[in-house]
Design a protein that fits this description.
The protein has three domains: 47 residues; 110 residues, Cupredoxins -  blue copper proteins (Immunoglobulin-like); 90 residues, Cupredoxins -  blue copper proteins (Immunoglobulin-like, Sandwich), CATH 2.60.40.420. It has a five-stranded mixed beta sheet with strand order 3-2-1-5-8. Strands 4-10-9-6-7 form a five-stranded mixed beta sheet. It has a two-stranded antiparallel ribbon with strand order 11-12. α1 packs antiparallel against α2, α4 crosses α8 and α6 packs across α8. By secondary structure, the chain is an alpha+beta fold. β2 and β3 form a beta hairpin. Bound molecules: copper (II) ion. Copper (II) ion binds next to loops. Copper (II) ion (CU) binds next to loops.
């Protein structure tokens, strides 16, 4: 973003200088060469000046050359070398949520991109269905996620904090509810987060949470979701391994509380009409048990 903003500011500065020169010249010419009282007819006309013509050709050529060079250096700063090394992070667009993969540690999460603040990461962007577009305005670069054609970009957040973004390419009914949270942390916080996410959770063996684990495996949840350490390994929907550590569910439609997970499970389409998560027609007991299970994974 800094490189892009720099190019914009230089271009604006050059344009303002040109505008200033033109406004002053026009004002000067209007006053200096205006018709004076007592003068008759057209004022004196002067045609053809090789010197002037060369000047007003060379100056714009020089300005365009400067802008061209500035653009080239910005492109170099912004475009990562594509396939010459493994990406640090893979962002996969789904209708209508984001899958976030950290290939080195094997961590998979959804909708929230955790980053160490100040470190530049190489991101690969893919799509499994239609074209999406990753855009977090404060972090600059907007980039398409094209099925079958991975794109690469640098992603860096200068300061710790939460940076909000959204899908910026119309991708179907719930395009507007395909929100991104980039959570930039200090190096220590980030590596703590990554270690925690990489851990295989223990399946609860007693109480209502154990009941939930059983239900989760018996009904179709595992056809679409992953929970590390269990046979559930599908990636049609977000990984639920550490759902409890995320801020939102449904790519931003609800804040993540046990209550809201229960509401979501009862009827996803109420919060995200057209969502690819079906209404599983769960009873209240099943919902409560599954919520207890998903929450217990983070203990
Ligand atoms: Cu999208």
């Amino acid at each position: 973003m800094e490189a892009l903003a720099g190019l914009t500011y230089y271009t604006i500065a050059i344009s303002v200088v040109i505008l200033g020169i033109i406004v002053i010249a026009v004002a000067y010419i209007i006053i200096r060469f205006r018709k004076k009282s007592g003068e008759e007819g057209e004022p004196y006309q002067d045609f053809g000046s090789l010197k002037l013509e060369i000047t007003w050709t060379l100056i714009p050529v020089a300005i365009v050359a400067v802008l061209f060079l500035l653009t080239c250096s910005t492109m170099r700063a912004v475009d990562p070398p594509s396939a010459d090394r493994e990406p640090d992070i893979i962002i996969i667009g789904h209708q209508w949520w984001w899958e976030i993969v950290y290939p080195e540690s094997g961590v998979i999460t959804a909708n929230e991109v955790h980053l160490p603040a100040g470190r530049q990461l190489l991101a690969r962007l893919e799509s499994i269905d239609v074209i999406h577009d990753f855009w977090v305005p404060e972090l600059g670069r907007k980039i398409d996620l094209v099925p079958g054609h991975p794109n690469y970009m640098w992603i860096v957040a200068g300061e710790p904090g939460v940076y909000l973004g959204a899908c910026a390419e119309f991708c179907g009914a719930q395009h507007a509810n395909m929100r991104i949270r980039v959570i930039a942390q200090t190096e220590e916080e980030f590596s703590e987060w990554l270690t925690r996410q990489a851990r295989i959770p223990e399946t609860p063996s007693t109480g209502i949470a154990a009941e939930g684990a059983k239900i989760f495996q018996e009904i179709a949840c595992m056809n679409c979701h992953t929970i590390a350490g269990t046979p559930a390994a599908a990636r049609v929907g977000p990984s639920l391994t550490y759902l409890a550590t995320r801020d939102t569910i449904g790519a931003g439609v609800l804040t993540n509380t046990p209550d809201n997970i229960a509401k979501w499970l009862k009827n996803p389409a109420k919060y995200k009409p057209g969502s690819l998560m079906p209404n599983m027609k769960l009873t209240d007991e099943q919902v409560n048990a599954i919520v207890a299970y998903l929450e217990a994974l983070d203990e």
